């Protein structure tokens, strides 16, 4: 048997094209109206395949694009209609509430944005339209998958069916400024209410944020408006709370607000917003008021040893690159407080003990709250060198006498405790300019201890001399070593 080709290429029936286009259009309309299609999805898929095989893909794509365009335009018009009617009713309700409460427009404006009663309802309608669009485009793409794969995805200038749907939704949303503005304003209103302590539907906001992201409107439309609203909200709050709260409580408030905004990003905002959002909050709550925070709160925290509060202040100022203010205040506090200890003659008996106690407290703060920051460590050293030499020679003399009291027999405490005390005294010795004065008094006191046999321990004497030698050199301690 011989198989010969057709003399004339077979053609589909004359009515095939029109009937197939009509059947597919009816199927798309059914999907868009949430009705069951008359034909099965597999049959519809075969119809699309047949049209594409017979080179009707461009016409089919254009028809489908036009049908989706008209449907999405109607959906946005529905939102526009609901926005207008909802706004009128909500405005009347809001005005009635203000009248009943005796609240003026000026007072509402200073408290924050006016919240429309229908904001949530409008956002839910937007979400419903968006979800319907996504579900419908998934179903339509399933029916027209052959068209998508063999035509749309093969043509660089032609968008895939899914991307075409997003493009159409974005086009109509952008063309209707009233709807787009209402969506953004309603979302900002919900976020404002959440910041004021009210509960909001985070799932609703998350879906709408994802919508803006999918439509590529998030960074161009929503985020700028959101950051502006954030800036305005925290500017007012910062001015109010800095007057109402003490610095420690204000720092707790700032820390909580930063945590809240980070959680907001985690729950429904786009992750790319985090840095800009945190910077905005820090600028309004911290940077604007950093001078007040340092001036009104830091010295009191240091006096009371409030390490947790100092750590919070350090952290927020570090975040806004204003640690220099804190370093300067730290240095001035040490100079002022230390000078008060040194220059008071009536305090000579307790001077060294008070300075040691002061130094230990500052070291603890430096280690725990200030993260051993090198700038703060250098400022501490510089401040001690300043105030401990405010009375020429006297601090050196008193440090020598303090060492004498520690090395005399009868001093209570273990050898380890004595060595720790001597180590701390040597830290003060490093700040003293009149080291020769210290040496003169130390030699005199050492001689008395040795002659009168009042030294607590030869080992302790040798330990102290070795410390001085390490600090000042062998030439400085040559005579001391000969005496001991």
Describe the structure.
Helices cover 77% and strands 0% of the residues. The chain is mainly α. Mean pLDDT is 86; it is low at 88-116.
Brief sketch in words of this structure:
With 484 residues, the protein is mainly alpha-helical. It has helices spanning 16-32, 41-53, 57-101, 105-111, 119-143, 145-150, 161-175, 177-195, 202-214, 218-244, 247-267, 274-285, 290-304, 307-319, 323-342, 351-368, 374-387, 394-407, 415-431, 435-451, 458-472, 474-483.
Sequence-ordered SSE layout with sheet pairings:
Layout lengths: L15 H17 L8 H13 L3 H45 L3 H7 L7 H25 L1 H6 L10 H15 L1 H19 L6 H13 L3 H27 L2 H21 L6 H12 L4 H15 L2 H13 L3 H20 L8 H18 L5 H14 L6 H14 L7 H17 L3 H17 L6 H15 L1 H10 L1
Helix pairs in contact: 1-2, 1-3, 3-5, 3-7, 5-7, 5-8, 5-9, 9-10, 10-12, 11-12, 11-14, 13-14, 13-15, 15-17, 18-19, 18-20, 19-21, 20-22, 21-22
Which features characterize this protein?
0% strand; 22 helices; 484 residues; mainly alpha; 77% helix; elongated
Note the run of SSEs as H and E. Answer: HHHHHHHHHHHHHHHHHHHHHH
Using the CA coordinates, give the radius of gyration: 40 Å
- Extended strand count: 0
Structural class: mainly alpha
Q: How helical, in percent, are the residues? A: over 70%
Low-confidence stretches: 88-116
